[in-house]
Fold this sequence. Notes:
By secondary structure, the protein is mostly helical. It is 44% helix and 5% strand.
Amino acid sequence: MSGRLGLRKKKKGRGKTGENHDNHPDIDVCSIYPPDAAEYRQDLNLVLTSPTNAEYGRRRLETGIKKASIFNGIPRILELPTCFPGDVMHQPVINLTALMLELWCERGNCRTGDGSDDTWDWAVLKGDVWKTHGQAVADAAPYFPRSFDRTPRNPAEKLSSGYKAWELLLYFYGLGPGLFEGLLPERYHLHYCKLVVAIRIMYQHQIPNQELKLANKFLLEWVVEFEDLYYQRKTERLHYVRQCVHSLVHLGPEATRVGPPSLSAQWTMERMIGVFGSLLRQPSSVFSNLREQARRVAEINAVVAMWPEIESNRGELRGSLNLGQGYILLTPKDMKVYQLSPTEKAALDTFYSNLPTPENPQRRSIYRWGRLDIPTEQTARSSWKEVDRTSTAARTDRNLKVRDLI
């Protein structure tokens, strides 16, 4: 498989002065090697030891290095530039979704410079179609469990007014495959689904080797097909191939080198910025106050790490019943014995008959509980109470994960 990337693949040898690097043959995306710390040090030393300004300019252009990084002064296990893995928050969630929606909605940022006689058969999210699609996204909100936090709003109305990264993640990589089916032409939808499969795998905290190989395969294919379907080697469309497109080819190798990308993504840092920002109380000495707040948070985290039971209060809620292994029944609860229907009785009989030591369910009094706290600290709600809620904004808490074992 050969990709046509608009970037010069750096050569091991030094080019001569005046050598033209603008034209080069196609680059196979499978042959792009990871960053090399030793080569970076060599290139940095070459730039820093430039004898003249003219030589500095030539070496800077050749190596892509301007000066030493501030991070050179911080001790670390991974050297520069290997200490900078990919970011699966900004790269595929914010930047790449912005690019794809600009194409599908025919926004001016992408249309600029492209001939009016070109056929954009992928630009389907326009007019009433875009409004209907946006409403379908908003209507899906009740079907997200409350543990998923903020649900995606109507993108047709809110996309350009503070649409959050979490909303884009749920919208583009969660709802998208179903909502875009039938809207996008088949070849564009299949191309898009490869990206969704790969990013979903990359967001796992544990990635089996076979799944990582599949994700890397789909990402490489997606980049090559993106250039075939959208860029089409037209100079007026070169701005389609943004950094967020090229960087996808590095996600697979980086996951092998430093672990699942979700564990080093920007989500944690963005959250900490918000937390410390909310703790600041002295505008006259912001940095002193920030230092003090950070010290207190670090002390608390250290104590909780040594004695986790200090922070955990699971199982202490009034009226709850701890079932063990992280499962806790929560109120509301039936005040009197519940009379089983024939179907419920048959299901209960089957359950007890499959136990290692079968018990007689007739000897037990049955009470219904409204909620169940599970080991992930998410709360599931029973049908008994969930169906009684009449609010259109109510979120579902009854969900099953179905695995196709065929």
